[in-house]
């Protein structure tokens, strides 16, 4: 199984912390955010992890190396000075990910979700992990009805956790360059080609210094 960690973003909302360190290398619970993902993916049986980089990418490249520290093969997809956004970054990395379905996790989230719960292949084009809507995103992203993900309609409205399983066909026909993943997921959901699962455990979008500090306090608490 191959997987990808999205790690190329500038982290504008996290400034000034990200002025000299990329967001995936910010530490929580005594280790970098990206380390949590690498450990979880290795434990779930992933063999190759593609990490895309742009802003301060040389720091991420030096930190992860070739992946042997985690028992992985790590490949770097270098996007240059400007990140290609979520969709464009995955699209550029498709030759490294191969022809089979693959897992993707946003490098700036933290969760106790076990990637082994993801399917090896989605029923349609994508399978998404959904979580309760956080205070900063009360409207959510998608509706989960059974295991079907829709843009609207009956069901529970939830937030996309930034963790999913995709077929290359979801992105393969898109033009190269910078583009967001969300519109492709929305189009696939409208066509009935997206399934999903609800994660009721811990999850945090580490997008601001305030949320970073809140997560650090949570992981330092004796109950965690």
TrEMBL record:
What residues does the Nucleotidyl transferase domain cover? 3-118
List the keywords (alphabetical).
Answer: Nucleotidyltransferase, Transferase
Question: Which GO-annotated molecular functions does the record name?
Answer: nucleotidyltransferase activity
SUPFAM superfamilies assigned: Nucleotide-diphospho-sugar transferases
Whether DNA-binding counts among this entry's keywords is no
InterPro entries referenced in this protein's UniProt entry, alphabetically: GlmU-like (IPR050065), MurU (IPR054790), NTP_transferase_dom (IPR005835), Nucleotide-diphossugar_trans (IPR029044)
Say if the entry is tagged with keyword Nucleotidyltransferase.
Answer: yes
What is the superkingdom listed in this entry's lineage? Bacteria
- PANTHER family attached here? N-ACETYLMURAMATE ALPHA-1-PHOSPHATE URIDYLYLTRANSFERASE, NUCLEOTIDYL TRANSFERASE
This protein's name? Mannose-1-phosphate guanylyltransferase
Q: What is the lineage of its organism?
A: Bacteria, Pseudomonadati, Pseudomonadota, Gammaproteobacteria, Chromatiales
């Amino acid at each position: 199984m191959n997987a990808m960690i999205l790690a190329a973003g500038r982290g504008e909302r996290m400034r000034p912390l990200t002025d000299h360190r990329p967001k995936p290398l910010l530490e929580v619970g005594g280790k970098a955010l990206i380390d949590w993902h690498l450990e979880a993916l290795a434990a779930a049986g992933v063999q190759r992890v593609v990490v895309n980089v742009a802003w301060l990418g040389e720091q991420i490249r030096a930190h992860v190396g070739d992946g042997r520290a985690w028992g992985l093969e790590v490949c770097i997809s270098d996007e240059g000075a400007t990140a290609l956004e979520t969709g464009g970054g995955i699209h550029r990395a498709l030759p490294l990910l191969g022809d089979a379905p693959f897992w993707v996790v946003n490098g700036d989230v933290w969760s106790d979700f076990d990637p082994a719960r993801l399917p090896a292949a989605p029923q349609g084009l994508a399978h998404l992990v959904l979580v309760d809507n956080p205070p900063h995103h009360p409207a959510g992203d998608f509706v989960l009805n059974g295991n079907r993900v829709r843009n609207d309609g009956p069901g529970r409205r939830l937030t996309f956790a930034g963790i999913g399983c995709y077929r290359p066909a979801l992105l393969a026909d898109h033009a190269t360059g910078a583009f967001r993943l969300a519109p492709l997921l929305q189009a696939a959901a409208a066509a009935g080609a997206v399934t999903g699962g609800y994660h009721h455990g811990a999850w945090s979008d580490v997008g601001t210094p305030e949320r970073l500090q809140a997560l650090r306090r949570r992981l330092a608490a004796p109950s965690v």
